[in-house]
Design brief:
Layout (H helix, E strand, L loop, with lengths): L1 E10 L3 H19 L1 E7 L4 H7 L5 H8 L3 E6 L14 H11 L4 E7 L12 H4 L3 E7 L11 E4 L5 E4 L6 H17 L3 E6 L5 H13 L7 E6 H10 L6 E4 L1 H14 L7 E5 L6 E4 L16 H14 L3 H16 L2 E2 L9 E2 L2 H12 L1
Parallel strand pairs: 1-2, 1-3, 3-12, 5-10, 8-9, 8-10, 13-14
Antiparallel strand pairs: 4-5, 4-11, 6-7, 11-12
This protein binds nicotinamide-adenine-dinucleotide (NAD), 3-isopropylmalic acid (IPM) and manganese (II) ion.
Catalytic activity: (2R,3S)-3-isopropylmalate + NAD(+) = 4-methyl-2-oxopentanoate + CO2 + NADH
GO molecular function: 3-isopropylmalate dehydrogenase activity; magnesium ion binding; NAD binding
Keywords: Amino-acid biosynthesis, Branched-chain amino acid biosynthesis, Cytoplasm, Leucine biosynthesis, Magnesium, Manganese, Metal-binding, NAD, Oxidoreductase
């Protein structure tokens, strides 16, 4: 039996609801594949603020560091939205990413054939979409200094953030992206704003330099405004996309809608070494929290990514993905992916259906 220490961070809003489904799925997968998961639950986000006053208690970071992988649901909610930024739930998530050195965020957006009718876009546009967004996760405008709200000489307030990338930060995310493209369709599109921003000019130069080491990969560049438009106009032109922290955040939400719902999109946040964090692309969905309405599939697919990328258990990951495929094939749907002729289930019932499918 293989033993794995998994830290669970359910967080806020729909977080605990979708995490419960993912844990049930992992337990049954464990039985089937002779894997033992030692789950440790820890506090992050609003839940941690309420219990300890801090969005990322030191004990949580320690527990994560001492595990083989971290499964995170989502953080944030109305209740904490007026706190200063360093005490908000989001600061907990950013601190976790920085604390574990998770500079590479892989966000696959692949449409499942069963969900073509769930997309708001035309069938011809989305059929066959299979994109990997490689988002830089520990740099850029999220972390650059100076940052803060300062007072000017005239007594006016001035909000400041700074978009910064160093050559080494660009190179390491670039390598991850070229390697990812090599395992996929061998096409990489780097997205920046090099027509305006110096930070993007450096980004484009370094990515272009790096491409000499990857002659088998076809590299292109797009400005982020055009990239957003192209993603909606003709998404099938994209294979792998590499971009900075903020642009990647925005483009991956846009890419989510190609697949039917943001409730379907998993992600993996990886560093050079140490445990990775596996988390849905969506947030805590406070508008539907506590109502058993959330789609747990992004969370369940994040658990599959954990098995694939962190625990090297591809067969177990395949089994989860096949179960997702099967319940969708049966017509099981949560509200966000409902279409004519399919059956509306709650979050828990979707979980039960998955368990049955895994058998
Ligand atoms: P959100 O992703 O939480 O929700 C956007 C919309 O999508 C909402 O209408 C929501 O109901 C829906 N949605 C999201 N996930 C869903 C799911 N699994 N099933 C069904 N519907 C789903 O984004 P938001 O409303 O802008 O942010 C809410 C809170 O979440 C904020 O506090 C934000 O900071 C936080 N957030 C956290 C993460 C994270 O933890 N990784 C990511 C994004 C946003
Ligand atoms: C995400 C979220 C986070 C981000 C927030 C909650 C800090 O939107 O994971 O996409 O902006 O990275
Ligand atoms: Mn986001």
């Amino acid at each position: 039996t293989q033993n794995y220490r998994i830290t669970l961070l359910p967080g806020d809003g729909i977080g605990p609801e979708i995490m419960a489904v993912a844990v049930d799925v992992l337990k049954i997968i464990g039985q089937k594949f002779d894997l033992k998961f030692d789950f440790q639950e820890a506090l992050i986000g609003g839940a941690a603020i309420d219990a300890t006053g801090e969005p990322l208690p030191a004990a949580t970071l320690d527990t994560c560091r001492n595990s083989d992988a971290v499964l995170l649901a989502a953080i944030g909610g109305y209740k904490w939205d007026t706190l200063p930024s360093n005490l908000r739930p989001e600061a907990g998530l950013l601190g976790l990413r920085a604390g574990l050195g998770l500079f590479a965020n892989l966000r696959p957006a692949k449409i499942l054939p069963q969900l073509i009718d769930a997309s708001t876009l035309k069938k011809e546009v989305v059929e066959g979409v299979d994109i990997m967004v490689v988002r830089e996760l520990t740099g850029g405008i999220y972390f650059g200094k100076p940052k803060g709200i300062f007072e000017t000489e005239t007594g006016e307030k001035r909000g400041v953030n700074t978009m910064v990338y160093t050559e080494s930060e660009i190179d390491r995310i670039g390598k991850v992206a070229f390697e990812a493209a090599r395992k996929r369709g061998k096409k990489l599109c780097s997205v920046d704003k090099a027509n305006v921003l110096e930070v993007s000019q450096l980004w484009r130069d370094r990515i272009t330099q790096l491409s000499q080491e990857y002659p088998d990969i076809e590299l292109s560049h797009l400005y982020v405004d055009n990239a957003a438009m192209q993603l909606v106009r003709a998404p099938k032109q994209f294979d792998t996309i590499v971009t900075g922290n903020l642009f990647g955040d925005i483009l991956s939400d846009a890419a989510a809608m190609l697949t039917g719902s943001i409730g379907m999109l998993p992600s993996a946040s990886l560093g050079a070494s140490g445990p990775g964090v596996f988390e849905p692309v969506h947030g805590s969905a406070p508008d539907i929290a506590g109502q058993d309405k959330a789609n747990p599939l992004a969370q369940v697919l994040s658990a599959a990514m954990m098995l694939r990328y962190a625990l090297d258990q591809p067969a177990a990951a395949d089994a989860i993905e096949n179960a997702v495929f099967q319940v969708l094939e049966q017509g099981d749907r949560t509200g966000d992916i409902l279409s004519p002729g399919t059956k509306l289930l709650g979050c828990r019932a979707m979980g039960e259906s998955l368990i049955k499918a895994i058998g």
